[in-house]
């Protein structure tokens, strides 16, 4: 009799413990600083992704999801310390973030030390899932190679000459390295490369070196610019009239605020990660409709990425049946899930999310305040030979 009473009490305690338990996710990202706009989009998208994947309940495995926000202020040392705090003091089940590649690289060893999952979104440097990768790191955002391969497929052609300008840090260096490799695979090379500090405001010297390298060439000449944040090198170099040498601009996609500065660049082409009108699938339809309802405007570049990360986290936990790191790793390797971009898949070798990209061409429309990336064609996963860089 006594044993049965104890068993009943223990059963009630176990049930109450299960009901009150929480699945904790830390979102560690640069809420303040020059990438603040990227960060807000990423967080909005993450919360929408969790909502979509849970059917609005914000629960998985019968347990509520709690999101803890931490601001890195774009400082690598902060990112490392905040992730340690999240894993150690807050006892989160997994973490998502950050915005900056430099911050992400500082955070990777912490995931390995604590043996906890880190889903990287939206930082893009190749080295995150390359030379600095470890088995606890998964990335839903595209990497520099995916940007580069998509742009190379979009821009390369017979008698086309390409020069590059990028920021002198992990994002720019890795991106141009991948772009150079992608062009080489198509039998092309870069005519001239320029790397400048991230806070550069005067592009005169760099532009003159590019002009001198290209002005004597015959054929199509394109200046491919890889840039994040403020500065707008396109406008400043355009004011120097590169057209007198036959040089046209090329680049990757960007957020809507940045695209406002591209209305003078109608016809510019490149490869992009996302623009809300490009994908055609039910997840993106829901995202676009919901975002217009709640935020009075369309979802942006990093909103889609945040949503992809949120859906991936829920699907991984649901598939694993737990939040144990080893169970999650096994469930996530090779995992496919639906995102605003259609199907994504974590590549088993490096946990990089394979995904479609888009060849775009900028248009200008009277009723839209930014330059509109129109679809030339979707570049499917099997069309993008993205290198594995962690081996």
The overall number of domains is: 2
Count of DSSP E strands?
16
Distance between the termini: 62 Å
| Radius of gyration from the alpha-carbon trace, in angstroms | 22 Å
Average pLDDT confidence is: 92
- The number of helical runs is 12
Residue fraction in strands:
15-25%
Task: List the helices and strands in order.
Answer: HEHEEHEHEEHEHEHEHEHEHHHEEEEE
Q: Which spans of ≥5 residues are poorly predicted at pLDDT below 50?
A: 1-20
CATH topology of the largest domain: Rossmann fold
Report on this structure.
InterPro entries: BCAA_transport, Leu-bd, Peripla_BP_I. Residues 22-363 form the Leucine-binding protein domain. This is ABC transporter substrate-binding protein. Keywords: Amino-acid transport, Signal, Transport. The chain has helices at residues 2-20, 36-53, 76-88, 101-114, 144-155, 170-184, 204-214, 233-238, 256-259, 282-295, 301-320, 325-332, and strands at 23-29, 59-60, 63-71, 94-96, 117-120, 137-139, 160-167, 190-196, 220-226, 247-251, 269-272, 336-339, 342-346, 353-354, 357-363, 372-379. It has 391 residues and is α/β, with parallel strands linked by helices. The protein folds into two domains: 2-142 and 280-354, Response regulator (Rossmann fold, 3-Layer(aba) Sandwich); 145-272 and 357-383, 3-Layer(aba) Sandwich (Rossmann fold), CATH 3.40.50. The strands form four sheets. Strands 2-3-1-4-5-6 form a six-stranded mixed sheet, sandwiched between helices. A four-stranded parallel sheet has the order 8-7-9-10, sandwiched between helices. The chain is globular.
């Amino acid at each position: 009799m006594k044993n049965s009473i104890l068993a009943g009490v223990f059963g009630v305690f176990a049930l109450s413990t299960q009901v009150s338990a929480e699945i904790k996710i830390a979102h560690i990202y640069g809420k303040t600083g020059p990438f603040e706009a990227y960060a807000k989009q990423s967080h909005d998208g993450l919360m929408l992704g969790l909502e979509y994947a849970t059917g609005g309940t914000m629960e998985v495995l019968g347990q509520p999801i709690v999101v803890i926000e931490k601001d890195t202020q774009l400082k690598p040392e902060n990112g490392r310390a905040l992730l340690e705090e999240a894993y150690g003091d807050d006892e989160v089940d997994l973490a998502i973030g950050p915005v900056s590649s430099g911050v992400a690289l500082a955070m990777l060893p912490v995931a390995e030390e604590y043996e906890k999952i880190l889903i990287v979104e939206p930082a893009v440097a190749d080295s995150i899932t390359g030379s600095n990768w470890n088995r606890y790191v998964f990335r839903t955002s595209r990497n520099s190679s995916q940007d580069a391969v998509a742009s190379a497929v979009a821009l390369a052609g017979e008698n086309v000459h390409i020069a590059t300008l990028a920021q002198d840090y992990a994002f720019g260096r890795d991106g141009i390295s991948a772009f150079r490799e992608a062009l080489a695979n198509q039998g092309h090379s870069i005519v001239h490369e320029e790397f400048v500090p991230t806070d550069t405001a005067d592009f005169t010297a760099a532009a003159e070196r590019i002009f001198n390298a290209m002005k004597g060439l015959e054929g199509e000449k394109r200046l491919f610019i890889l840039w994040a944040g403020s500065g707008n090198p396109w406008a400043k170099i355009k004011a120097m009239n590169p057209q007198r040498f036959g040089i046209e601009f090329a680049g990757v996609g960007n957020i809507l605020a940045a695209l406002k500065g591209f209305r003078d660049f109608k016809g510019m082409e490149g490869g992009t990660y996302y623009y809300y009108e490009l994908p055609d699938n039910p997840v993106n339809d829901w995202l676009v409709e919901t975002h217009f309802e709640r935020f009075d405007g369309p979802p942006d570049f990093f909103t889609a990425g945040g949503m992809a990360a949120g859906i991936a986290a829920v699907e991984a936990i649901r598939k694993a049946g737990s939040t144990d790191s080893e169970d999650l790793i096994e469930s996530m390797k090779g995992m496919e899930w639906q995102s605003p971009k259609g199907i994504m898949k974590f590549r088993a070798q490096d946990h990089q999310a394979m995904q479609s990209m888009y060849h775009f061409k900028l248009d200008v429309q009277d009723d839209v305040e930014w330059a509109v990336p129109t679809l030339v064609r979707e570049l499917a996963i099997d069309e993008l030979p993205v290198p594995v860089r962690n081996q």
